[in-house]
Input
Amino acid sequence: MISAMASKTTWVAILSAALCAWVTGACATGAEGDDDDDGTGGGSSVPKSFLFRRAITIGETAPEGYSLSITIDHAQLVTDEKSAEDGADLRFFFGAGTEETEIDRVLDPASSWNSATTTVWFRTQVGVGPYYVYYGDSEAVGPPENGSLVFDFFDDFEDDIVDATWMVSEIGGATSGSVQEANGAIRLTGAAQDIGGTADNCVFLRRTMIGDFAVEAEIKDSGGSIGGPSKIGGLMVRETETAGSKNAMISIRNNPRARFTSWRTTDNGDTLDNEMPGAETFPQYVGMQRFGAIVSTLYSLDGAIWIQLGDQITLGTLAEAVQLGIPLANSSDGTGWVDTEWFRVRKLALPAPTVALGDEEEI
Output
């Protein structure tokens, strides 16, 4: 698909070498004083074989280590033979000149390459930019795409190994809590009655998070013994693992089917809830934001555009360190399960920093 790129790269290399040899007689073996030439262009870590780039402009409110996404018409780049169909040549760099360094990027799990709305995530680095996205290298392979270097936490559950930082709690008398990872998902299993009232009875796949954050996940499927008012997966933040702990949750209620959010603002207090009928089929995308003691619950129809469900929830005071994870209350004495396809946590900054792509530059 990118034969034109390869052709252009080849002829540029041939002509440059010939001209340089005619002028200096030294280019074939490297000019004197250029012993560290690694083929990246005068010490820059950007390979010479990239043909195009676009600057990324980030708003001033973006803190270091903040996860940002850009959406690019990758399908058009493929059609124009400027990028590979698998996106292997779409690379992100930070810095300028000889200090330009490649950084990890991750394809949004709800997105795809060769799409008009390909969405890719990266992370702000220490120091002031600039940032660029490069493409047009016909031989590019193996891009750096470690999600742990893009998000505060990221798991796509592809390695069949449960991350050691996940813990399962049986809250309020729930039983049979277990977790396993297979087939690109993490499965939480248990027998639990409900989340609500003044005390919860649920299994909770959790991890400790500190400070403000945004979290999103995809609920893939459910099964086993699932009773009518079951709360099938989703996201929960709670102060402790005690049954009466203050908490906020977004989940899928089984029957009547609905996107369901609930919250308890004081320990051992009553639980309030809100719902949006629907969510008949999987997958379902859920999100949550924690800002101090204020929690917002969100959902998405496509994993790209996020909509707040109900009003913001104020949990009185909330400890800096909280328990965040996936809840399950299957309203049955038998065991039920829920599968989650991916789970990511990132820093929260309000207002959200802006990010924009500049015009294409030919290199």
In short: The CA atoms of residues 104 and 145 lie 5 Å apart. Residues 3-43 have pLDDT under 50 and may be disordered.
